[in-house]
Amino acid sequence: MNTGRTQFKKGHRSEFAGRKHSKASKLKMSLAHIGKKQSQETIEKRSNVIRGRKYSKERVEKVANANRGQKRSPASRKRMSLAHIGIPSKKKGKKGVPQTEAGKRKIREWQINHPNRKFKDTDIELKMEAELQRRGINYQKQVPLCSIAIVDFYLPEYRIVIQCDGDYWHNRQGAKERDERQDKVLIFNGFNVYRFWGHEINKDVIKCINQLNINK
Predict the structure, then answer these.
(1) What is the pLDDT of residues 184-204, one digit of tens each?
(2) Is residue 216 a contact partner of residue 135, using CB atoms and an 8 Å limit?
(3) What is the DSSP code (8-state) at residue 173?
């Protein structure tokens, strides 16, 4: 039966055996299929080969550890960076087209309204929380408000927002502008915003809470 493939007999040596390709030739071959569309038949054949295959735990660990700690050459990194040419990015628009500002704003709003990560309390937040508890003040932590920010503490009885700003992170480029933009939106929507620097909380957290003018 003719399978369409060249039949080799035992002991036959290919004319290409032992040949070494130059770096330029290897790069050319690796880039040859970039951007080409595979037929549905080819995709199904490849998926059927992989589908249902089970690997032992040892092999999984071996594959996972194979490239760990290895340093790739500049040529290898270039090939990897070029491998995704023509593939649409998940973070950008179709086929790598940058998103509009409106699109970016919608993504930020969705992430704020649907936080999918757990926030680790900082030292200054723990000090602020301890003082709120000592005074018996009702509060909520890490609350999304106005689709603009996830505030550190929210006091619903007084519509007070407390932000505990680390001296380093909130002094970085762009951080102050972002904080000011958040405050404007929150104040416009009727919230009373109080921001305290980390050094202020560490020096005297009682003095910080006294500025809220809450008689408790």
Answers:
(1) 999 999 999 999 999 999 999
(2) yes
(3) T
Q: In degrees, to the nearest 5, what angle opens at C-alpha 180 toward C-alphas 146 and 171?
A: 125
**Site of tokens 């086929």:** 95
Q: How far apart are the first and last CA of the chain?
A: 92
Tally of CB atoms within 10 A around 153:
20
Q: What is the reported pTM?
A: 0.50
Nearest Cα neighbor of 202 from 151, 136, 142, 130 is 130
Angle subtended by helix axes 23-30 and 74-82, to nearest 10: 20
CATH of region 123-210: 3.40.960.10
Give the C-alpha distances (Å, rounded to integers) separating 124 from 111, 153, 206: 25, 12, 12
CB 95 within 8 A of CB 86: yes
Name residue 31's amino acid.
Answer: L
Residue 154 CB neighbours (<10 A): 20
Average pLDDT of span 26-51: 62
Pairing of strands 160-165, 192-197: parallel
83-100 per-residue burial string, b: 16 or more CB within 10 A, e: under 16: eeeeeeeeeeeeeeeeee
